[in-house]
Amino acid sequence: IIGMFFQDGLTGSAWGDWSLYTDSPLRQAAEVSVAASAFESELGVQAPVGFFDPLGLAKDGDVDTFNRRRESELKHGRISMLAAMGYITPELFRFDALLSPTSGLTFAQVPNGLKALSVVPAAGWFQIILYMSFVEVSGISERQDVNYATPGQFGFKALTSDDPAKKKKKLNAELANGRLAMMAIIGMFFQDGLTGSAWGDWSLYTDSPLRQAAEVSVAASAFESELGVQAPVGFFDPLGLAKDGDVDTFNRRRESELKHGRISMLAAMGYITPELFRFDALLSPTSGLTFAQVPNGLKALSVVPAAGWFQIILYM
Q: pTM of whole model > 0.70?
């Protein structure tokens, strides 16, 4: 139901038809028109979403600002693709050699993921920071454009082609994969922080660096037989709300969960049903309003008469 509200607010339809985006009650059609006409032919405008700017960051049509943001998107996407591969590769292959001869540390002794942060020696961090600085400075010094007119281009033509259509396809793929990688690496960090593994093995949840095993043990032993504890997740409490084992507090929260769930199920059905069936009758005889004249979703809020709101609130 939250998704329906969000889509309805953005597009004027709970089903999220982006062709209706200009009819959104959250944004003016003129603002969308300016942004779309300015950037609808840019790289990254791909089906099925098309020009996607739900926060209206490009509504002023400022090309320089758009190029600067595109530069940031490309940079973060490229870093995230490398980072995601950096999580995966050590699971498949490691050099059989010393990483730090002075400390006798081998590649095999460095754990994968966030735990590696505490193992890498100071000299290693110095080399990492030095290399990052070199990449930043060399990239800035080699730029010939003004105001990021050619975002992401540093003279290194890994993705290119003599065929403009093929070149555009490759560059679109870079943007799409970079966007996916940004989501992926955040997911890996989150899973790693919670479970001690980037792959989110919930059996390792007690090994999480974000929560103490003792806290999980108390909560699990108190509530592991409760309703809602189901495979594959089992007892799921990532924020540790039940870590104190307080039964009264748990029951109060379960009451709230059930109540909100039941209301949401009715609300979701309330969105769907009018799309399939409406009474052929008057909703408000005094104002001559029929059921068919009430739009579905959030737009109905402005159509329901005051007497109708009174009845709704009275029933609640």
A: no
Dihedral-angle region of residue 197 (phi above 0 means left; psi in -120 to 50 means alpha; beta otherwise):
beta
Q: What pLDDT, in 10s, does the model give residues 2-23?
A: 888 877 777 777 776 656 555 5
Q: Report which DSSP code applies to 117.
A: G
What is the SS3 assignment for 230?
strand
Instruction: Tell me the residue type at 197.
Output: S
Q: Give the end-to-end CA distance of the chain in Å, rounded to a whole number.
A: 19
- Beta-ladder partners of 100: 105
CA neighbor of 171 nearest in space, from 180, 162, 160: 160
Give the phi and the psi of residue 204 in degrees, each rounded to 5.
-95, 10
In terms of phi and psi (left: phi > 0; alpha: psi -120 to 50; beta: otherwise), the region of 240 is left
Distance (Å, whole) CA 310 – CA 316: 10
Element (H, E) at 284: strand 282-284
CA angle 239/245/250 to nearest 5° reads: 70
Handedness of CA 85, 89, 91, 92 (dihedral sign): positive
Amino acid at 236: F
Distance CA(21)–CA(48), nearest Å, equals 13
